[in-house]
Specification:
It is a single chain. The protein is an alpha/beta fold. It has helices at about 25-30, 35-45, 60-70, 95-105, 120-125, 130-135, 150-160, 180, 185-190, 220-225, 235-245, 250-260, 275-280, 290-300, and strands at about 10-15, 50-55, 80-85, 115, 140-145, 165-170, 195-200, 265-270. Strands 1-2-3-4-5-6-7-8 form an eight-stranded parallel β-barrel, surrounded by four helices. Strand 5 (about 140-145), helix 7 and strand 6 (about 165-170) form a beta-alpha-beta unit. The radius of gyration is 19 Å and the shape is globular.
């Protein structure tokens, strides 16, 4: 991220923006374009939440296009997007080609933070970041969905040319703490890397908005994943609701606050202005160690495994 820009302690995600392959309609059951999302973007910018995360693969460019349109003219916006090896073209310049597409859709000349979305081949893809760093087209780099050995190897490759990783972005929530168990959070603390916790709300399953009587929208991937386990989450959600009452917070705010208390940057998907306002307030909540431990115990007791189909084990 551009050191001249003040990065907030929370990032806003745009996976659910736009429609198309692996887009908001298929994964989340949403059909949101720039017009509907402008109030969301404006609310965030007014609140100082300027760090936005997207990826080419979210709607195959749809999310980036919407974010680029909304971000136009906002010099303080911090843009984070990703190279996804699995959808790249063949050839040695595949990353450069995908990066150029992202720059064009986002309407900028350089990216504040550029990620390798999935490891695929650390030896092949990590060196491709170096020419982009040299050219100034990307300012900082991160790796997403990488295990500890892959993270360390990526850092070695970059360091050999005088560059370094700035961040790691992995699935991390009360229901999925594999990055913590594998030592990735500790490594990030030791090395001064930011850890972005994505799916901290488990696509809404930890928001308190859904239960067996009020399931997630049918016809979406998230409904197929989470509706079958909603009953198992009842005790955890009840405890989150109880803690929330103490702090004047919602269930979703407790989930976000937990991630912030663990030293991560919660990455929260936003589709409504209220999502932004909730997220902004959530990172100001400081739960006790006992409350954190109780939530983690109840989460473990659910026996629910929310590892995504795209993820490799971290341990």
């Amino acid at each position: 991220m551009d050191q001249t820009k003040q990065a907030p302690r929370i990032a806003l995600g745009t996976w659910s923006w736009g429609v198309g392959t692996v887009g908001g309609d298929q994964v989340f059951g949403n059909h949101l374009g720039a017009e509907e999302l402008k109030p969301v973007f404006d609310t965030a910018m007014q609140a100082g939440l300027t760090l936005w995360d997207t990826a080419v693969v979210y709607g195959m460019g749809a999310s980036e296009t919407i974010l680029g349109k909304l971000a136009k003219g906002h010099d303080d916006v911090i843009l984070s997007t990703k190279f996804t090896p699995q959808i790249s073209e063949s050839g040695e310049d595949a990353m450069a080609v995908m990066c150029e597409g992202s720059l064009s859709r986002l309407g900028v000349e350089s990216l504040d933070l550029y990620w390798i979305h999935n490891p695929a081949d650390v030896e092949r893809w990590t060196p491709c970041l170096i020419p982009l760093l040299r050219s100034g087209k990307i300012k900082q780099v991160g790796v997403s969905n990488h295990n500890l050995d892959q993270i360390k190897r990526a850092e070695e490759i970059l360091a050999s040319e005088g560059y370094h990783l700035s961040a790691v972005q992995n699935h991390y929530s009360l229901l999925y703490r594999s990055s913590e168990k594998a030592g990735i959070l500790e490594y990030c603390r030791e090395k001064g890397l930011e850890f972005f916790a994505y799916m901290v709300l488990e696509q809404g399953a930890l928001s308190g908005r859904y239960d067996t009587g009020h399931p997630l929208p049918e016809g979406s991937q998230r409904a197929a994943t989470y509706n079958p386990v909603l009953a198992k989450l009842e005790k955890l959600i009840a405890a989150m609701r109880g803690i929330g009452r103490k702090y004047g917070a919602s269930v979703s705010q407790v989930a976000i606050a937990w991630a912030a208390c663990k030293g991560t940057i919660p990455l929260v998907g936003v589709t409504k202005p209220t999502h932004v306002s909730e997220a902004a307030s959530a990172v100001k909540i400081f739960m006790t160690q006992e409350e954190v431990a109780e939530l983690e115990r109840l989460a473990s007791d659910t026996g629910v495994d929310t590892k995504g189909s795209w993820e490799n084990p971290m341990e």
